[in-house]
Amino acid sequence: MQNLMNARNITLSGSETIDSQQLLLMVNETRKEHGEPPIRNNVFIDRIKDELESEYYKIFVVQKMNNTE
To answer: Does the pLDDT of residue 60 top 80, yes or no?
Structure first.
């Protein structure tokens, strides 16, 4: 998690902001370090919208043709 905060030497304080693409790069770098696959841009944007629009977290799991996740 600390790597996520320091990814690419990005430090935020006060009114500084980053865009969703910078955040996606940070998230995917951290996921890679932990052996997890990257999140696609369209899925990441959907997750951001979900977080901003509602109280409930939507589970983003794709079901494969053979009914597995």
So the answer is: no
Q: CA distances (Å), 50 to each of 2, 16, 27, 58, 63, in order?
A: 25, 23, 17, 7, 20
- Find where tokens 């905060």 sit: 5
Regarding pTM above 0.70, the answer is no
Instruction: For residue 21, give every residue at least 6 positions away whose Cβ sits within 8 Å of its Cβ, in sequence order, or none.
Output: 41
Would you state the structure tokens that stand for residue 35, as one six-digit string?
């052996």
Q: Which two tokens stand for residue 32?
A: 């890679």
- Tell me how far apart the alpha carbons of residues 64 and 69 are, in angstroms, rounded to a whole number: 6
Domain boundaries, given as residue ranges, for the chain? 2-39
